[in-house]
Each structure stands twice: as C-alpha cells, then as structure tokens.
Design brief:
Chain A is mostly beta strands. Chain A has strands at residues 4-5, 10-14, 19-21, 24-25, 32-39, 46-52, 60-61, 64-69, 74-79, 88-96, 102-104, 108-113. Chain B is globular. Classes of the chains: A mainly beta, B mainly beta. The A-B interface holds A 33, 35, 43-45, 47, 50, 52, 91, 93, 95, 97, 99-107 and B 31, 33, 35, 41-43, 45, 48, 50, 56, 89, 91, 93, 95, 97-98, 101-107, 109-110.
C-alpha cells in the first residue's frame, strides 16, 4: 500500500516567492522519520531536510522548512525566496522505525519562473 | 569511500541477456537500498538490506530480479532475461542503521539501463 502521497505532480512559483510542496503519509509505527530530497535534471538525489516523529519543533534548514502536522500526518516542504536553481523534482520519503526501510512518494516537479 | 559508488554508470544490453549492477556503499553504513526510477517518475522501492538480517525483497517486480550483499558491504542487483520494460535508472543508497537518529540515505549516481 502506498504510504507516502504527493498530490501535486507539478508546481509553478515566481522567483523570490515562497512555495509549499505537499506530502502526506500513513503509518502505525509511532517512531518514524520524514525526509525531503531534491532531484535536479542531473539526476542526483540531494538530501534537504529531516523531521523525526518525536521532534517537538518543525525542522528548518536555510530556506527550507518542514510544516509537520502530526495529527494530520502531513509533512509539507516550504521553500522560501525561491530561486531559479530550485527548479527540480522534489521527493518526500518516510522511514519507519520498525522496518527502517525508506519509501518515497511520486514526487512534485517544481518550476521557478523568472 | 567518499560516497556511494555505482557501476556501470550506463549499460546497454540486448533483450534476453542478464545484467549485473554493482553498488559500493559508504563505509560503515549497514543499511543499503535499491530503487528503480523510470523516466520522469518516482522512486520504486526494490530491496533493502540491513546488516546481517534477511533482506526485505517485497519490492522486487518479478523473479527475474535478485540482489545480494556480500560481507555487509558491496551489493549486486541482477536482472535475468532482461525485458524492454526493465529500462530505467537503478539507484542505490546507503545509510546508518536503525537507532542512530537522523539517518538520511545517501545516493549513488545511478546506473542507466537500456534494454534494446
């Protein structure tokens, strides 16, 4: 069963504006971690940000922040002050503590317009 | 090594041939993952190794696919009797084991497999 859902196949944002990429997940494991990766056209997978299920505060890494709503099982990525170089595929992933394997969502293609 | 290394970077094979894809994880990483990514698509989970435990093979699409990990380090993904639908980028990732807090997976550059 699909455990990670990204409902936005594609998103557009104007340069310098903020954008939110959606991610919902499903698990019965109380211990889990949520990850966001960026995949530019070069194909490499770049780790962006991590949120643990027991973390009290939303994770932030520079222009990236994670809007973690545990009760809703959502972990949306917020990119502030978008740059042209942010154009890429973005993947949400979850690792459950019980199994430790990592599953990915289908991804969202973000295009930043000048 | 500095990162996850995959070889070959590109592989073109004829339909029906067997192929082996190699992954050399980061030293000390006990977890190793294989994913398949078709053009413009997401990452399809194939198999997961954790230390000496039995691997999670639940993502392997058919019995033509198999993988092994020798000595807890290098892994080989084998596809027998390749089909055109096997054409994709095969990504390998490794990470620290469970119970080590934030343990992001580090990815290799992938092997682009083309079956003609």
């Amino acid at each position: 069963a699909q455990k990670i859902t990204q409902t936005q196949p594609g998103m557009f944002v104007q340069e310098k504006e903020a954008v939110t990429l959606d991610c919902t997940y499903d698990t019965s494991d109380p211990s889990y971690g949520l990850f966001w990766y960026k995949q530019p056209s070069s194909g490499e997978m770049i780790f962006l940000i991590y949120q643990g299920s027991y973390d009290q505060q939303n994770a932030t890494e520079g222009r990236y922040s994670l809007n973690f709503q545990k009760a809703r099982k959502s972990a949306n990525l917020v990119i502030s002050a978008s740059q042209l170089g942010d154009s890429a595929m973005y993947f949400c992933a979850m690792r459950e503590g019980r199994s430790n394997d990592m599953r990915f969502g289908a991804g969202t293609r973000l295009t930043v317009k000048p | 090594g500095a990162g996850v290394s995959q070889s070959p970077s590109n592989k073109v094979t004829e339909k029906g041939k067997d192929v082996e894809l190699r992954c050399d994880p980061i030293s000390g990483h006990t977890a190793l993952y294989w994913y398949r990514q078709s053009l413009g698509q997401g990452l399809e989970f194939l198999i997961y190794f954790q230390g000496n435990s039995a691997p999670d093979k639940s993502g392997l699409p058919s019995d033509r696919f198999s993988a092994e990990r020798t000595g807890g380090s290098v892994s080989t993904l084998t596809i027998q009797r390749t089909q055109q639908e096997d054409s994709a980028v095969y990504l390998c990732a490794s990470s620290l084991g469970p119970g080590t807090g934030q343990t992001e997976a580090f990815f290799g550059q992938g092997t682009r497999l083309t079956v003609v």
